[in-house]
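Q: What would this chain look like folded?
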Amino acid sequence: MKKVSLFFIAVLFISSGSLFAQGFHIGVKGGVNMTKIDGRSFDEGFKWGFTAGGFAEINFTDHLVIQPEVLFNQTSTKTASNFNQVYDQGINSRNVNLNYLSIPILLSLRPSPLLSILVGPQFGILINQDENILANGKDAFKKGDFSAVGGAQLNLGGFKLGARYIIGLNNINDIGVEDKWKSQNIQLYIGFRII
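A: My prediction, written as structure tokens:
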């Protein structure tokens, strides 16, 4: 049993050594979100929020990188002026702020060292929400969100400058089936590679 354990530990160290030889980096990033929630229950316009967090880069080749991230994302929107016609207990024209812990796991394709094309899934965990869009105080939003991410990033040495479009794939409405709510997000950010 000890030999098997030592073998797995040796494989782990060898593979992590080759990973660092290819390139492993971490960094921080921050920026702005322009978000909206689709559905009859919400205004059509985008609202401002912010994003901040950290990222890692796992370089498999010069052109192929996996970029996992952990981000705090603020989603802001406003209930429609006829929200109470969709849901009896609804409060019309109320500002809504949703805070998510977002975990995008992105494939970064680099046609050149300067440019990255980013695609992949994003998992969101609702960590804070306004409970004031319903008069009875009931939670209105599901605790998780699953999205698709696409974007581009400029790599200027250790600095990153990027833009993304994030579209929600699941219904985040936790009240009822009268209306489907899906998020949309345009994200602009800057980042800095620490290691």
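Helices lie at 2-22, 83-86.
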